[in-house]
Amino acid sequence: MTTTDHGGGVWSVAVPIPDNPLGHTLVHVVDTDRGPVLIDAGWDDPASWDALTAGLAALGTRVADVHGVVVTHHHPDHHGLSGRVREASGAWIALHPADTAVVRRTRTAPPTSWLRYLADKLAAAGAPDAHTAPLRQAAATGRGGDLPGLRPALPDRDIVPGELLDLPGRRLRAVWTPGHTPGHVCLHLEEEHPAGLPGGGRLFSGDHLLPGITPHIGLYEDPEDTTVTDPLGDYLDSLERIGRLGVAEVLPAHQHAFAGAAARVRELLAHHESRLAALHALLTTPLTPWELAERMEWNRPWDEIPYGSRTIAVAEAEAHLRHLVKRGRAEPVPGAGPVAYRAA
Ligand SMILES: [Zn+2]
Ligand SMILES: [Zn+2]
């Protein structure tokens, strides 16, 4: 079944993500006095659009009636269809300004400059030429224009952390949870649980808190920003804040709804602590982020990790390194070439 009734005027529609092991995005539909408001919209693909519109029809409404789209973060499996929903309905789109900045950059920068930036970053992280060559080649030949999500919709409204969103008849408060992206937000529905589950309301958690997977925490990747950000530190802080909300149920954007947010938060915090400890132990010899990624534990041996996933893995290794440096547990080794880190 593609739609689920979560009670109390909240439903979800499973919108497929083409060729992706995650399977689908759960687009949540919140009934308001002015019509349905969507939390996320799904991937921009004809089959996904059909699933979304069919799902809304099954709930007895229409995409033309949508009053607003609240987007948890800028990733294409969440923000992809927002623009098309707005065209069909005149709905507003709301996003946190930090992710709006990413959207603006994506819309204006030519894809070739992004490919060059990525190749330079990977080289600085110690990636071998064999890994960066395809990116440089694509940049030189002007390929890469067909990457998904290159023309994401500009939102109409800012999501303001701590404030209620404009949902007539409902209480939905934005909680800023940076980490997975700089402007990721969770949305707290501050209403009693419809089935009487104990706790304070329900949380639309986007990709921040999922029942069975850990979200990717990489770098924020802003070519114009030279400050050294700490996305993993941001993520761990955001997790703790969400754990303290004491919500009765979590409605994530992938997998399935679950209770026990605080326990899941503790699990994720412990996961990252043990990962940080394991990485710290590896840094008895200085390693570049690439070398560290090769030695880290993944869901399969490094040799079997496909090209694109290696790029993501290196960003994840670097995010952990940055956080160790921030905690004073690792330091860069002075020298030429890609920067290596050792335990401090
Ligand atoms: Zn995401
Ligand atoms: Zn996602």
UniProtKB/TrEMBL annotation:
InterPro entries with a match to the protein in the record: Metallo-B-lactamas (IPR001279), RibonucZ/Hydroxyglut_hydro (IPR036866), Sec-metab_biosynth-thioest (IPR050662), WH-like_DNA-bd_sf (IPR036388)
Domain of life, per lineage: Bacteria
Pfam families the record matches: Lactamase_B
Domain Metallo-beta-lactamase: 24-254
Protein name: MBL fold metallo-hydrolase
Species of origin: Streptomyces coeruleoprunus
